[in-house]
Amino acid sequence: MNTYKYKREFRLLTPADFQNVFNAHPKKFSCRYYTILAANNSLGYARIGFTISKKKAKNATDRNQVKRIVRDDFRLTHSELPSVDMVFIAKQGIAQAENKQLRKELDFTWKKLKRLANKS
User: Fold this and answer.
1) pLDDT tens for residues 54-104?
2) What pTM did the predictor assign?
3) Who contacts 7 (Cβ-Cβ below 8 Å, separation ≥6)?
4) How many separate domains does the chain show?
5) Structural domain for 30, as ranges
6) Is 98 helix (H, G, I), strand (E, B) or coil?
7) pLDDT for 16-61, tens place per residue?
8) What positions belong to coiled-coil segments (predicted)?
9) Of 3, 21, 42, 43, which shows the fewest CB atoms inside 10 Å?
10) Has residue 118 been placed in a domain?
């Protein structure tokens, strides 16, 4: 039985964690709202971190809502994802995206990530 918790160990917390992803020549997954950089890890589970600047989403409530949606979607699909570290980078206009559309884009990105992991 899967537990759908979003534990502390599923997050990139330190600047060193983020830097490891940037230095590892990550795979890029992009759409009109965001870019996700993914690099393999040896932990056996996926982790995610966020960079959403004030230029991309002006209000803190908008930034927090985007993070909440992405975290929830990640939490539900976490058990199916390969062991990678991901950095979620917001693009201009993400604050105006509808929740339904953002979830649809995320589902498509998770499928691409799983497919890439199955190939290698």
Assistant:
1) 999 899 999 999 999 999 999 999 888 989 999 999 999 899 999 999 999
2) 0.89
3) none
4) 1
5) 8-113
6) coil
7) 999 999 999 999 999 999 999 999 989 988 999 999 999 998 999 9
8) none
9) 42
10) no
Burial profile 79-105: b = 16 or more Cβ within 10 angstroms, e = fewer: eebbebbbbbbbeeebbebeeeebbeb
Three-class DSSP labels, 52-108: CCCCCCCCHHHHHHHHHHHHHHHHHHHHHCCCEEEEEEECCCHHHCCHHHHHHHHHH
Q: Tell me, rounded to whole angstroms, the distance of Cα 67 from its chain centroid.
A: 9
Instruction: Report how far residue 78's alpha carbon sits from residue 5's, in angstroms, rounded to the nearest whole number.
Output: 9
114 φ, ψ (degrees, to nearest 5)? -65, -40
Is residue 38 situated within a structural domain?
yes
Q: Is 104 a domain residue? A: yes
Q: Residue 44 — φ and ψ, nearest 5°?
A: 95, 0
| Amino acid at the residue 5 | K
Look up the CATH number of the domain holding residue 31. Answer: 3.30.230.10
CA R_g for the chain = 14
